[in-house]
Amino acid sequence: LFDAGGAPAKAADARGPSPSPVFMPAAADLEVALAQKNLFVVYQPKIHCSTGRVSGLEALVRWQHPDHGLVTPDRFIPLAEGAGLIDGITLAVLNDALPWFAKWSSDYEELGELTLSINISARSLGRPELIDTIVALCERSGVSPSKLIFELTETAAMDEPVAALTLLTRLRVHGFMLSLDDFGTGYSSMLQLVRLPFSELKIDRSFVASAATSQESRAVIRCITDLGRSLGMKTTAEGVEDSATHTYLQEIGCDLAQGYLFSRPLTPMLLANWMDKHLE
Ligand code: C2E
Ligand code: CA
Ligand code: CA
Ligand code: CA
Q1: What are the residues facing 40 on neighbouring strands?
Q2: Taking all residues of the chain, what is their mean pLDDT, rounded to a whole number?
Q3: What ligand has the least distance to the C-alpha of 120?
Q4: What is the model's pTM?
Q5: Which residues surround ligand 4, an ion (CB under 5 A)?
Q6: Which of 49, 95, 134, 146 could bond to 1 as cystine, CB 3.0-4.6 Å?
Q7: Which residues contact 232 (CB under 8 A, 6 or more apart)?
Q8: Is the pLDDT of residue 14 over 60?
Q9: How far is 45 from 262, CA to CA, in rounded Å?
């Protein structure tokens, strides 16, 4: 669905040229963007804290508006959710990501089994048909569901815990993995959370960004890492920007990390360059 290769290199940078501050996209703009393939996907490597080697990639959607430039997902995902366009975006992301992921898994076989993380909206939780489509897409591209990790935000999981449990359990039955994104930012009950079948906790960037300077943030990170370990879940720190934080994560036994310290989200072409360097 996307013209992935055609995305301008600059757009890979999340802090790239910012769109005009007055541009407030409407649902109709987004429909046009979907139809005209103005959305594209960038990929951010996920690293094993202990070894520094790549463990997988997270797909992050971008909108290259012909007049307004790059629009980041914070500005159109909520719109898409409200306008019933979010499943279209999820499927478009998968259509782009699965073939690339299949290629990278074989190109970079020496890294071992890579994973592909996909962000999924709470709005999709009520729609079990979506799962059949996702399973079919995986089959078509030859990607085993066990390589896919669906990331759901803590707030999303708790807004509709019953719908969440139903859909998440179905995803698990198909072999997909589940990750609890932005962990630590919600106000959910621990007990409800641990009943949901997640295999990963993603420590929110707000704690990770301040780890180097804040004793409190480090305490929260350590606490989530210990919780994940006791529950048999992987812990991933997102937004790692400095090596002191990386060292701290290694010390406390956090499993995985993502952030500008390792790489920004990259277009497929830039990712291939990055991987080649990574493997040198
Ligand atoms: P998220 O899933 O929590 O993604 C992490 C965000 O942090 C991404 O922003 C990423 O580019 C950014 N990031 C990664 N490393 C660093 C770092 O070291 N420093 C800083 N400052 N930022 C870093 P992005 O790509 O703008 O995405 C924002 C949010 O939009 C995502 O948060 C996710 O909730 C949502 N999103 C992105 N793509 C999709 C998608 O395909 N579907 C859905 N439903 N939501 C998406
Ligand atoms: Ca995410
Ligand atoms: Ca997150
Ligand atoms: Ca977030």
Answers
A1: 62
A2: 90
A3: 1
A4: 0.92
A5: 182
A6: 95
A7: none
A8: no
A9: 8
